[in-house]
Amino acid sequence: MATAAELQKKVRELEAKLAAALGNAGPVRQKIDVMSSEVVDSNPYSRLMALKRMGIVENYEKIRELSVAVVGVGGVGSVTAEMLTRCGIGKLILFDYDKVELANMNRLFFQPHQAGLSKVDAAASTLQAINPDVAIDAYNYNITTVDNFQKFCDTISTGSLTSSPVDLVLSCVDNFEARMAINTACNELNQRWFESGVSENAVSGHIQFIIPGETACFACAPPLVVASKIDEKTLKREGVCAASLPTTMGIVAGFLVQNTLKHLLNFGNVSHYLGYSALTDFFPAMTLRVRELQNTLKHLLNFGNVSHYLGYSALTDFFPAMTLRPNPQCDDSYCRQRQAEFRAKPVVELATEVTEDSSPVHADNEYGISLVDENSPEEETPDLKLVDGVQVAYSIPVDNSTPESSTGGAVAASELSLEELMQQMKSM
Amino acid sequence: MATAAELQKKVRELEAKLAAALGNAGPVRQKIDVMSSEVVDSNPYSRLMALKRMGIVENYEKIRELSVAVVGVGGVGSVTAEMLTRCGIGKLILFDYDKVELANMNRLFFQPHQAGLSKVDAAASTLQAINPDVAIDAYNYNITTVDNFQKFCDTISTGSLTSSPVDLVLSCVDNFEARMAINTACNELNQRWFESGVSENAVSGHIQFIIPGETACFACAPPLVVASKIDEKTLKREGVCAASLPTTMGIVAGFLVQNTLKHLLNFGNVSHYLGYSALTDFFPAMTLRVRELQNTLKHLLNFGNVSHYLGYSALTDFFPAMTLRPNPQCDDSYCRQRQAEFRAKPVVELATEVTEDSSPVHADNEYGISLVDENSPEEETPDLKLVDGVQVAYSIPVDNSTPESSTGGAVAASELSLEELMQQMKSM
Any catalytic annotation for residue B87? Predict the structure, then answer.
């Protein structure tokens, strides 16, 4: 047995190592009962509660009652979980069955000393240290096996702080099979979820908000920026791997959590599809609520009614628009059931174009640049102010033949046939 | 003195705490001499080197020779530094003079146990553990004092791995004074840099690439999405603070490092201005190299020549375009000197519009949608394929009266007078 002096030395060494490991062990964060707006250095919520004072979020504290499931805790999922944890989400449920490897160190979150640990355990321990107020459940299994799929469904449908269904499911998985499993579960459970993905070449990504029955599910149509359909494990066996960058993955996680916050805390406009192309910094976006951009394109290009998908091809200088409405022949029977339920909802008439009212066109035009209104193309607008060198080049054609029909919250779309849509996607 | 048994117990306790602190102490990452593409779990660079195989980056290893200075290690700067570290940057130079506080825990990177440490020391220690291959210098001072400003300039101009100037400076500061100090230094040193910022209400941000003499410097014109001009410390004294979100800050850091990589490793197109509005997921972007979007707008809206700033107002349905060329009357004398040098550079004729060649228009049109070409508006293009319900609504006016002039790499812009530009910015 070691002598007392040797042991004393060992204690000192360990204490020093521990202090170093803990970053010189400053004050550790204690649990906090109520989110406070107080502006003191010791309040981890002051900058978040300031969102109320700034008029961005009405009731930020509500976040502590909310539960989010994150499926896949890799390059996107781990950062997603960390952002939600730092935002003070009430409960976080993590699913993954992979281990941390040094090969993951080119992405944010995990650290080399965690190599070999399960991703969910390593993540849960780091996240709990960052914010002890968050309830964290971690499940270390593959959701695509029959048994685990049922466990997954059960957890989603009873996982909230009050044992009700979780408020949102975020898919951060890296393969087609897992996405289909989440899609099937969410259609069956009528659960809203976000799909996300990053391309194999690491320089593009997307998020997509899926509301069963209302928007296209993952089986209705594949996402436009398709994440790898090939399981990473298959690739690795062949000695190749997909490229990845901490930048693209961090950006996609940021988009995912930002839209999660907007949806759950009811501020801003939630994107139904948001893509990102790193090479050209292009962001095709689509929402059901923000109609302005689509309407602008309708103004400018006059192709029928407003569509739900807005894309842009840098190569061909053109903005295509297409619908992402659900596929009536979707293979997923629960998707078809949700579609029928959605169609049966009472139809709410949308307000007609704001430009039809008699107020000055573009009264708040902060750039001092304007175009004539779609519905009064020939009308002289006396307040039309153009900066030097800028002129209105053409009148926008009138088209009164296709009044917008309204289906729930969605605006009518110039629908491509599903066949055409699929054909276009396949050829991309 | 404690007994051997007591000490033995203490050793076991400390060992357990240390193991916990180190995440059960898996294998720690050793230094690596040469970046390898080998696909094994232990290779932290396999996913980055895969960018070569994917055809994205020609020579990824070059990153190990490059040096980047990050000024400000807060919500944006810390994530920026982490991304660069994980990407394997050769050398990272950090500047900050603030301490980690629990109030910073709503952003990524720092952890509660680091509260009280200087941001640069805490960051350097975490980053070094993540990637021991990166050379990290940390400076804990305020760059805006006279003495420190000179030290800052000296460090920037000799800070690379070979004692030459750093390859890029990234501004991640949170106040106007520090931005002006960086601007002054970079104009004097003829140093390329990126400005970045996040708004006080936490829901918008921007990055801007500044090339002295070629693009507007920070003193030429304020950025369009202005980060707080009020020092956070002033606000805190008054018991209020700016709001912040880990999402927006992570996204801005992602944009910053993504464009840093594109610039330093020469792939894709570097954005000269990239904004982000979280509420509507809108991204005004402007580059000198990507002319497609601007040309599209020129096609569609016909307002003069192609401009350098592309904005979009969600409220008014309109895309304004304005130049961000430098201000000939800029207060910064070095900026004016760089402008004179830039003007004196030999003029390189730009290739004329690609659509002037005889190959089929939009041969690679992945969406199957097209518009007639600007230079042949009346011409029938036999390969013009429109999807059902989509039609060309108007012919684009011909304007041969304003051939593009060329100034270096920049395209000619329909310039607003500086007064008008400033007026517009002030009114935003």
Answer: no
